[in-house]
């Protein structure tokens, strides 16, 4: 099971964990895990959601205390557990996925935040904070106005502020939890450059990312976790994305291209010259009954804006949209839903589903008129409708009344799809349907998509993961900077052709 | 059989634990403390006092479920009462006919609804915080009312209004019947109507509701409109009870209505809460004040005890959640 | 300069509105634009400003407090009784007693909020009812008129007769108010603890991960408001020369409106002392001006309410939202 390799080349590790066990509510979150980081290396930590990555980070940074018997060797000292203060004082820094920044405070205060800590009040030395901030930013080759509030800056700059904050703390070891999740390609490139700079200056970086392409690009070694146990430590050289996926899930995926020819089917949606300056320009395409049209492209290419325009939530400046041959113009998404268009949001946590509310209510919210009985909502009808969809899509639930947040990502996404299917749509737009869904559960989502297409639904599948659209769509449009620049037919081309075009 | 148990449990719901427990505790403590507690007089006084606070609490409930507040409820009730009084006076004061009262009531409810419409529009379209919007509406309506009445009372209403405030039908006080009717309407609205369903959804996550095709602005405007209209009903009942209208009548109920909602298990952030537990919470509050009254204490002590009760219930809820958490951890 | 205006947009907007209203009132009435009237305004606004800067600290830390005004009434009453029992006391002992009692009552709120995770609006609505109910119950609503002499006699720190015969006076309440304002400003902008409060209000989870003591933050914020409520209560008794148990009832919402008008955000992390003071002053200037202009006192409350409603609506509406086409831009966020 464990393919642990000792620190190669005789280099002494900066951090070395042995025998880390952790239990939550009777469930073992980590089972005898060990983990090494060498000084100045970029090390990737990979694993599905729930594999124990974040638990491990929290143990190293002292947020959690591992069970007895754990050994943490760090920088010449041995600990049985860490505390947040020890970790910070000895140069362990974390850049959390949510960044843990303070938007209303100035950039300088955010970067030099540690000087504000401490139990007893002291006077704030704003000048020294500004100097520290400017110096830290300079190390990253960035200049920002440190007096402005952080909220004035976009997410990419905030990411940089979070990294600068880690540098102020004299970091030797920096953890980055999904740092590129909300960055565009050029911003990601810049971030990876910064990681290289850090590494070259002797700071070790542990990189957690679900984007395997980046993992391969940036890291020298890779530790894979599955179900709380160590799978192995591997040099990145010679690894492929599919090999990492296999290690993470323990399954092999032999994906086949699903593309079929549907040219004989009638057109459901026809878009002509649709433009919204600054977001997308002159978009023309058609989707047929039973067709799955893939749209791919990097973050910021205008995919989501295009989808929202079709869904009536953004107004296009010019161009036309025809649904089943009829010209349509929506003043809100309610019109779009009534006309038969459904849109699964890319942001399931805050826009796709209403997390605290029940599974049943989330499923019926868009089709309340269908559970009416004599003008009033009927609980019986609601239960019937929900039970039918739960069975149809194979959702695993406890009770219909449980909060949707109790379900796994994959099951939540199935409920979200069911919500839209219940509105009886003609066109279903799926925007990044596998974000936050475990690799193992993604195949199940695409099986549903294939079945829906076979039943005659027109589907637009948007994803920035090229393999997803390549294997699951009948046709693939490539969007870049707001325009459709290419069209591919998966049955006639290779995956790397599309990848080459998108990542070029 | 299990179906009936399940249905009853669904009807009572988890919110019922707090007020249910409080109801039992109040009944037990007072029946031990005073033999007169279980008497017609106690329940008569509860039945007559409950409706004013109760109607205002219903008006508070809807905005709280959307994650907001309506701090203008008491003065909206006063202004609606003034509207009715004005119509009655225009039609002969004490000699005004039932038609004038009907017309006044319709106008009064319209005025209450109008204050709600304005607040709803501002909240829905500017996303200003409901506490601020309703607070400034409250200050405005208080000023308007004091300007119109110069701080005095308006009285001299026709005699046929007497039963509306003090009469009984089959032994049930008329205001209580009005209140129970409104409770049922609210219950129906929240459990069986689209507006109610969407109110909960908006309370939990307004953007996600919008993405699911809910007309969030319309829902917000309607919620505050209904809240304003319910205030007007309370204002009309108060007019009949006191046989006069004075701006400031019922002012002290404002924060009590919020207290009653929280006691009834309504989530302070919105999205969860039901009418029946809130109704039980109101009964508990009135029983408490009547019981203390029998024991010789005044309303002020009852107010303090209401506050203590809210804290107690919140602490018990915290402890229960804590206990569940520990149990799961050991699990 | 542009940067200063940008980062203090609310304060400048308020200042502009105050200037416009003042200009209008100076033309409309002959008495508004006089030093005498200006100092009069300061004297009458002192108590509200003291309350406001206290409430500001709680709002910055992400809380809300409904109970502070009745807490101030409790402090007034208990302090008056204690001082009488002590045989008089003086300003020093009076302020110490009032401040300590205020901190204690604030700490009760912080305790409930932190220890039992009751959110602040629920906890303080409960304590509002407890404080007020018990005060009215034990006092039977009876006012105290025989206060110690030092408390009731006006303390004039500076006076000067103007050429037109009116008097310019700076009284003790103004001095105490200035001290409270400056102390709060130093505390929240110049000390590490003050900045921790901002950080905690802005992003509580982030603050927790940095090891900021959440419990301490609650006690400091509510304790500071308690201190201000205590001091404000004593000053109000001094100003009114009597202690009426329900005199401050309802004041909490007026102060809250003024503070939020001054740019503080319900939800935390935002707000400034200057904005808060300007918010209170805007309301008192409007009332004072309408009063001088001979508008019925019954009408000007209504006008003030309307002004706040319009101000809140405008401050939450950017130009884009008023133009329907531009509104679509915010669809994706």
Itemize the secondary structure elements and their pairings.
The complex is a heterotrimer of chains A (504), B (331) and C (333).
Chain A: E1 15-24, E2 27-37, E3 42-46, H1 53-60, E4 71-74, E5 77-79, H2 84-89, E6 92-95, H3 107-111, H4 126-139, H5 155-168, E7 173-177, H6 185-200, E8 204-208, H7 212-218, E9 221-226, E10 229-235, H8 241-249, E11 267-276, E12 280-288, E13 292-296, H9 303-310, E14 318-323, E15 326-328, H10 333-339, E16 341-344, H11 348-352, H12 359-364, E17 372-373, E18 376-377, H13 379-392, H14 409-421, E19 427-431, H15 439-454, E20 458-462, H16 466-472, E21 475-480, E22 483-488, H17 495-503
Parallel strand pairs in A: 3-8, 3-9, 6-7, 7-8, 13-20, 13-21, 16-19, 19-20
Antiparallel strand pairs in A: 1-2, 1-4, 4-5, 9-10, 11-12, 11-14, 14-15, 17-18, 21-22
Helix pairs in contact in A: 4-5, 16-17
Chain B: H1 2-12, H2 17-33, H3 40-65, H4 73-90, H5 98-126, H6 130-149, E1 153-155, H7 162-166, E2 168-169, E3 172-173, H8 174-192, H9 194-204, H10 206-211, H11 216-242, E4 244-246, H12 253-263, H13 275-294, H14 299-330
Antiparallel strand pairs in B: 1-4, 2-3
Chain C: H1 2-7, H2 9-28, H3 35-60, H4 68-86, H5 91-115, H6 120-139, H7 149-152, E1 156-161, E2 167-171, H8 172-190, H9 192-202, H10 204-209, H11 214-240, H12 251-261, H13 273-292, H14 297-315, H15 319-322, H16 324-327
Antiparallel strand pairs in C: 1-2
Q: What would the average pLDDT of chain C be, to the nearest integer?
A: 85
**What number is the mean pLDDT of chain A?**
88
**What is the helix fraction of residues of chain A, given as a range?**
25-40%
Number of helices of chain A: 17
Poorly predicted parts of chain C: 318-333
Percent range of helical residues of chain C: over 70%
Our Rg estimate of chain C from Cα atoms comes to 21 Å
Structure description:
The complex is a heterotrimer of chains A (504), B (331) and C (333). Chain A is α/β, with parallel strands linked by helices and 504 residues long. Chain A is 33% helix and 24% strand. Chain A has helices at 53-60, 84-89, 107-111, 126-139, 155-168, 185-200, 212-218, 241-249, 303-310, 333-339, 348-352, 359-364, 379-392, 409-421, 439-454, 466-472, 495-503, and strands spanning 15-24, 27-37, 42-46, 71-74, 77-79, 92-95, 173-177, 204-208, 221-226, 229-235, 267-276, 280-288, 292-296, 318-323, 326-328, 341-344, 372-373, 376-377, 427-431, 458-462, 475-480, 483-488. The longest helix of chain A has 16 residues, at 185-200. Chain B has a domain at 50-274. Helices cover 76% and strands 3% of the residues of chain B. In chain B, strand 2 (168-169) and strand 3 (172-173) form a beta hairpin. Chain B is globular. With 333 residues, chain C is mainly α. Chain C has two domains: 2-295, ABC transporter involved in vitamin B12 uptake, BtuC, CATH 1.10.3470; 298-333. Chain C is built from 16 helices and two strands. Chain C has helices at residues 2-7, 9-28, 35-60, 68-86, 91-115, 120-139, 149-152, 172-190, 192-202, 204-209, 214-240, 251-261, 273-292, 297-315, 319-322, 324-327; strands at residues 156-161, 167-171. Chains B and C meet through helix 5, helix 6, helix 12 and helix 14 of B and helix 6, helix 12 and helix 14 of C.
């Amino acid at each position: 099971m464990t393919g642990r390799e000792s620190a190669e080349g005789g280099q002494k590790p900066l951090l070395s964990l042995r025998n880390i066990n952790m239990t939550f509510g009777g469930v073992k979150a980590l089972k005898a895990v060990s983990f090494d980081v060498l000084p100045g290396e970029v090390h990737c930590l990979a694993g599905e959601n729930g594999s124990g990555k974040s638990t491990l980070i929290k143990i190293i940074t002292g947020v959690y205390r591992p069970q007895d018997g754990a050994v943490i060797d760090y920088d010449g000292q041995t600990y049985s557990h860490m505390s947040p203060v020890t970790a910070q004082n000895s140069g362990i820094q974390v850049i959390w996925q949510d960044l843990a920044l303070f938007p209303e405070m100035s950039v300088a205060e955010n970067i030099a935040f540690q000087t504000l800590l401490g139990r007893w009040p002291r006077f704030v030395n704003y000048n020294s904070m500004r100097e520290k901030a400017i110096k830290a930013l300079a190390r990253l080759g960035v200049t920002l106005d440190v007096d402005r509030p952080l909220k004035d800056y976009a997410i990419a700059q905030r990411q940089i502020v979070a990294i600068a904050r880690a540098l102020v703390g004299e970091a030797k070891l920096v953890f980055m939890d999904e740092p590129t999740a909300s960055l565009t390609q050029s911003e990601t490139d810049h971030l990876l450059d910064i990681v290289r700079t850090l590494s070259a200056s002797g700071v070790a970086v542990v990189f957690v990312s679900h984007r395997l392409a980046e993992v391969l690009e940036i890291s020298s070694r890779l530790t894979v976790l599955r179900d709380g146990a160590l799978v192995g430590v591997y040099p990145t050289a010679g690894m492929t994305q599919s090999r990492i996926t296999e290690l993470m899930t323990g399954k092999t995926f032999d994906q086949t291209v699903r593309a079929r020819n549907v040219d004989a089917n009638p057109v459901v949606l026809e878009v002509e010259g649709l433009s919204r300056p600054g977001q997308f320009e002159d978009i023309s395409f058609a989707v047929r009954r039973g067709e799955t049209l893939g749209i791919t492209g990097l973050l910021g290419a205008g995919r989501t804006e295009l989808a929202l325009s079709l869904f009536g939530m953004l107004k296009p400046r010019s161009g036309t949209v025809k649904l089943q041959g009829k010209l349509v113009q929506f003043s809100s998404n309610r019109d779009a839903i009534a006309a038969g268009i459904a849109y699964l949001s890319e942001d399931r946590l805050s826009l796709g589903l209403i997390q605290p509310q029940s599974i049943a209510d989330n499923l019926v919210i868009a089709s309340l008129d269908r559970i009416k009985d004599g003008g009033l909502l009927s609980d019986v009808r609601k239960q019937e409708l929900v039970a039918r969809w739960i069975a149809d899509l194979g959702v695993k639930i406890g009770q219909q009344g449980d909060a949707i947040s109790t379900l796994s990502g994959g099951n939540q996404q199935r409920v979200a799809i069911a919500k839209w299917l219940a509105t009886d749509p003609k066109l279903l737009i799926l925007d990044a349907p596998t974000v936050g869904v475990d690799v193992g559960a993604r195949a199940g989502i695409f099986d549903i998509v294939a079945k829906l297409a076979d039943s005659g639904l027109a589907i637009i599948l948007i994803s920035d993961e090229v393999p997803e659209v390549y294997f699951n769509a009948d046709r693939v449009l490539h969007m870049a900077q707001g325009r459709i620049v290419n069209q591919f037919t998966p049955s006639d081309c290779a995956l790397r052709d599309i990848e080459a075009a998108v990542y070029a | 059989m299990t179906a009936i148990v399940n249905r009853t449990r669904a009807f009572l719901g988890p919110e019922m634990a707090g007020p249910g427990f409080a109801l039992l505790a109040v009944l037990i403590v007072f029946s031990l403390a005073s033999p007169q507690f279980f008497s017609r007089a106690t329940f008569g006084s509860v039945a007559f006092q409950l409706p004013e606070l109760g109607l205002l609490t219903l008006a508070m409930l809807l905005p709280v479920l959307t994650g907001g507040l309506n701090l203008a409820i008491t003065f909206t009730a006063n202004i609606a009462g003034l509207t009715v009084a004005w119509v009655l006076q225009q039609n002969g004061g004490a000699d005004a006919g039932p038609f004038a009262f009907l017309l006044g009531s319709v106008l009064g409810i319209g005025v209450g609804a109008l204050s709600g419409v304005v607040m709803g529009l501002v909240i829905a379209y500017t996303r200003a915080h409901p506490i601020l919007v309703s607070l400034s509406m409250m200050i405005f309506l208080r000023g308007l009312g004091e300007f119109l009445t110069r701080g005095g009372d308006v009285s001299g209403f026709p005699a046929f209004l007497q039963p509306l405030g003090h009469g009984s039908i089959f032994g049930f006080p008329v205001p209580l019947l009005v209140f129970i009717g409104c409770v049922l309407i609210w219950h129906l609205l929240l459990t069986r109507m689209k507006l109610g369903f969407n109110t909960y959804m908006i309370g939990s996550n307004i953007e996600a509701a919008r993405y699911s095709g809910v007309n969030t602005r319309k829902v917000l405007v309607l919620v505050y409109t209904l809240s304003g209209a319910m205030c007007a009903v309370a204002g009309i009942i108060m007019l009949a009870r006191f046989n006069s209208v004075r701006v400031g009548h019922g002012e002290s109920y404002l924060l009590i209505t919020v207290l009653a909602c929280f006691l009834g298990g309504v989530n302070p952030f919105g999205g969860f809460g039901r009418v029946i537990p809130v109704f039980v919470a109101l009964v508990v509050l009135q029983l408490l004040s009547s019981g203390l009254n029998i024991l010789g204490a005044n309303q002020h002590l009852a107010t303090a005890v209401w506050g203590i009760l809210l804290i107690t219930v919140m602490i018990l809820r915290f402890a229960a959640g804590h206990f569940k958490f520990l149990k799961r951890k050991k699990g | 300069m542009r940067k200063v205006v940008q980062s203090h947009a609310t304060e400048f907007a308020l200042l502009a509105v105050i200037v416009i209203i003042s200009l209008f009132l100076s033309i409309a009435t002959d008495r508004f634009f006089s030093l005498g009237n200006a100092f009069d305004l300061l004297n009458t606004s002192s108590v509200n400003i003291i309350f406001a800067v206290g409430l500001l600290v709680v709002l910055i830390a992400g809380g809300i407090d409904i109970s502070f005004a009745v807490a101030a009434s409790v402090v007034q009453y208990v302090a008056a009784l204690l001082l009488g029992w002590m045989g008089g006391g003086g300003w020093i002992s009076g302020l110490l007693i009032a401040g300590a009692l205020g901190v204690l009552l604030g700490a009760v709120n912080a305790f409930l909020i932190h220890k039992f995770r009751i959110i602040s609006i629920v906890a303080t609505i409960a304590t509002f009812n407890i404080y007020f109910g018990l005060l009215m119950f034990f006092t039977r609503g009876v006012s105290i008129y025989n206060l110690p002499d030092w408390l009731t006699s006006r303390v004039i720190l500076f006076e000067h007769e103007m050429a037109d015969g009116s008097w310019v006076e700076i009284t003790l309440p103004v001095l105490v108010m200035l001290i409270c304002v400056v102390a709060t400003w130093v505390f929240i902008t110049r000390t590490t603890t003050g900045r921790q409060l901002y950080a905690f209000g802005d992003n509580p989870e982030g603050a927790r991960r940095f090891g900021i003591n959440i419990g301490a933050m609650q006690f400091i914020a509510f304790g500071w408001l308690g201190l201000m409520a205590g001091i404000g209560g004593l000053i109000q008794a001094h100003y009114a020369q009597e202690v009426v148990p329900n005199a401050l009832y309802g004041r909490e919402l007026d102060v809250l409106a003024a503070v939020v008008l001054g740019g503080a955000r319900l939800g935390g992390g935002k707000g400034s002392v200057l904005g808060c003071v300007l918010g209170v002053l805007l309301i008192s200037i409007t009332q004072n001006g309408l009063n001088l202009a001979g508008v019925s006192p019954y009408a000007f409350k209504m006008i003030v309410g309307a002004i706040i409603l319009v101000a809140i609506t405008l401050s939450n509406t950017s130009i884009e939202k008023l133009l329907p086409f531009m509104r679509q831009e915010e669809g994706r966020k």
